[in-house]
Every structure is written in C-alpha cells, then in structure tokens.
Design brief:
binds zinc ion; alpha/beta; 16 strands; 8-stranded mixed beta sheet
C-alpha cells in the first residue's frame, strides 16, 4: 500500500490557542495516538516559505536549489507543457488608455471574452522561440517560451500599479537579453491584436473596460529537474484543487488527477478528494492530497473558519483513508497565522503514522502537543526519505 501526504495549506498558527489545538479532530487524534509527532520546517531558517517552495521541499526537492521562479508552476498547473530550458511567466490581461498608461491591471476583472482574447494571442513565433499563452481564471493566464538560449533572469513588464505604462523587460543577467527581447516583442504584438479585437468592441459596447494589453511577471525556468520517478523510484500522484499545487506536482513529474468538485476553496468536495486518493492508491506509491482553504482563512484572519476547515478535513478525509495507506503524513506547508494574516516562519505541526513506528506521547496534531513529539524538528527535505524508508523503498548510503 502507498503513502499518503495530506497537506492542509498554512495549517500552523501562533498563540496559546490555535485553530489546530481547538479543533475537534477525533480521527486525527487516533492517528496521532498511534503515530509520532514533531514539527517540520520546509525552507531554511530565516526564510518565510511560499507555498511553491514549501511544496518542493516536501516533495524532496531542495527549493534553494530547484526553485527558479513562479512562472512554471502557473503554466504547468494550467496544463501547459514545459521542457528543459523553457521559461514561463504569469500573465494578466489589463486595460491601457490611448497613451498606453495602465488604468486597470485586471481589465475590470469581469470575464467577458477573456478566453477568446487569450486564444487570439495564444501562439506566436518570435525569432526562433515559440511563445504560447493560455487563459486560467478571470484575467489571469500563463505564458511559456520554448527555444534555445532562454533565461529567467529578466524584469517584469508589469509595473504592479496603475497610472504607469507597461514596462520594457530588461535582462538582469548576462545571457538573458534574448528572453527580454522576445518578451517585449510578444507584448507589442499581443497588445496590437488585443486592441483591435472584436471582443473588446463588444466589451466596450457593454460598458466594460477593454482588455487591450497584457502584463507579464514572475519569470521562471524549467531546468534540471529529475522526475520523482527516477529520483526516488516511486510513482506519485497529486489530488488538488488549486492550480499552483497541481503545477508544483507536475514540476517534479507527478501525475495530476482531475477531481470534479475539488476547487481549492472552502466549498471543495473533500469526500470526492478522499475517494480519489483511495481509488488512486493501487496504482501509485505516493499520493499527495492538498487542501487549500486553511491558508485562505489564515490570510483572512478567520480563526473559526480555519478551525472548522480542519474539523472538516478530519471528518471527511481521515476515516476514508485510515487503514488504506501504509504511511499517512498529516501536516502543512507553512504557518499562516490568523493574527499576522500572512505566512510566517514558525515550523508546522507534523504527524507521521505507520503501524510500526516508535511511540511518543503526542495525542493530537497541534502546536502544543507536537512539541512533545519524538521527531522534534525535521526539515521538509527529510519527509520524503522518511516516507520512502517506511515504504521499504529507501536506498542505503554506503554498504
Ligand atoms: Zn501554502
Ligand atoms: Zn498563503
């Protein structure tokens, strides 16, 4: 039977009482009582983890080595293909006035015809580089450049504020000139196509702002990734609602399942996700199951919402998976403290269950209880090797 890595995004918290400590979680408590606890720190000390870097770490890929920008996660999460050396960006359709000044970075957000507009600029060839763009949600999308001699070390074209013109992308390192040049040429051609597009005439006749320009940011390169199957000798699969997590999983070569009802919001269908994990179990060694809403409640400062989401995960996921996996790990990728309303560097409560682990006194996945755990503080990078060891899939160092 495979291992299950259940991540409640941003589940850790600060303070005496926390959403984890006050949540009623009878099923997780049972796992904790027969498993072992501790804390995980997903990125190096002194850093505050992003979800992307934290997940790379939990998947066994050192983010300080393998993280080369956000763009590829967005593109892969959107289902786009990327190969070695390709560079990706996040994109926004936006509105500029007659003099090219940005008046709305999200083109009014109202999604009328955004998909069609993205399709109109969907494929271009600039120099010897193929540029592909794809719509994701609302005004957002992703751009992938494929070709030789590309580098992610280029500036954004997105000034991140209105009242300014679209920026010219500049190379930030030697060898990045071509990427900046292609991005600028793409931006020019795309803006021409968008400005005269029929959809924008319709938008304006409905009183909506035209989506007549595109902004790119978050350059990243897809490079040097040894797929998880080769690196650890396991078949791995991802069940997630949010595109970023699907993208992170694809980045390391996991399969990604499409689960109807998995939305990455508080309304996500946790039962469907648990069922998908159980159904996938016979075909895989490692199932990654991600729940996003705990993080969103943290950002909103909503203690009760976060607590209720944890209780929902406990009731709807744990009983369905308990007994069907050899290893069950329940933790988060980082702390999203409701008081701070942001990611913080505090290590995250960590629960590891296997029928044959050593025992400790931990009886609940919480900040206070896990402090009594036998695991102490572990690094995110230690999680995958530990799982492999209990799956009898580890390799010995030395003889
Ligand atoms: Zn996260
Ligand atoms: Zn977050």
């Amino acid at each position: 039977m495979p291992a299950l890595l259940l991540i409640m995004d941003g589940v850790g918290d600060r303070g005496k009482e926390t959403p984890l400590s006050s949540a009623k979680t009878p099923y997780m408590d049972e796992l904790a009582a027969t498993g072992i606890g501790g804390f995980v720190r997903t990125v190096a000390g002194g850093f505050v983890p992003g979800s992307d870097t934290a997940h790379l770490s939990l998947f066994g890929y050192d983010p300080h080595k393998f993280y080369r920008g956000r763009g590829p996660f967005e593109a892969l999460g959107a289902g786009m293909e990327m190969g070695e050396g390709d560079v990706a960006f996040r994109t926004n359709l936006c509105t500029v006035d007659e003099s090219g000044i940005i008046v709305d970075r999200r083109a009014g957000r109202k999604d009328v015809g955004f998909e069609e507009l993205y399709r109109a600029i969907g494929e271009m060839e600039i120099e010897d580089v193929k540029v592909k763009v794809q719509h994701t949600v609302e005004h957002r999308g992703a751009l992938v450049m494929s070709g030789k001699g590309l580098l992610e070390k280029v500036g954004n074209t997105d000034p991140h504020e209105t009242g300014k013109p679209i920026m010219e992308s500049v190379p930030l390192a030697e060898g990045a000139e071509k990427t900046a040049r292609v991005l600028n040429e793409f931006t020019k051609r795309a803006c021409e196509i968008l400005a005269s597009h029929e959809v924008n005439k319709q938008r304006e006749s409905q009183g909506l702002k035209p989506a007549n320009a595109i902004l790119c940011r978050g350059a990243g390169i897809y490079q040097g990734i040894i797929p998880i199957r080769e690196r650890f000798g396991i078949r791995a699969v991802c069940i997630a609602g949010g595109a970023l997590y699907k993208g992170a999983a694809r980045y390391v070569g996991m399969d990604v399942l499409d689960v109807p009802g998995a939305t990455g919001t508080a309304e996500t269908d946790l039962t469907a996700k648990a069922r998908a994990a159980v159904d996938a179990a016979p075909d895989y060694d490692f199932v990654f199951l991600h729940v996003k809403a705990t993080d969103a409640f943290g950002h909103d400062g909503d203690f009760d919402g976060k607590r209720r989401m944890i209780e929902k995960v406990d009731a709807e996921i744990i009983p369905r998976v308990h007994g069907l996996f050899d290893v069950i790990v329940v933790t988060g990728d980082h702390t999203t403290a409701v008081t701070a309303r942001r990611h913080t560097a505090d290590p995250v409560p960590f629960l590891f269950w296997h029928r044959d682990v050593r025992r400790d006194e931990v009886t609940k996945l919480s900040e206070q209880e896990c402090a009594r755990g036998i695991l102490g503080h572990i690094a995110g990078l230690d999680v995958m090797p530990m799982i492999l060891d209990y799956l009898d899939k580890s390799t010995m160092f030395g003889e």
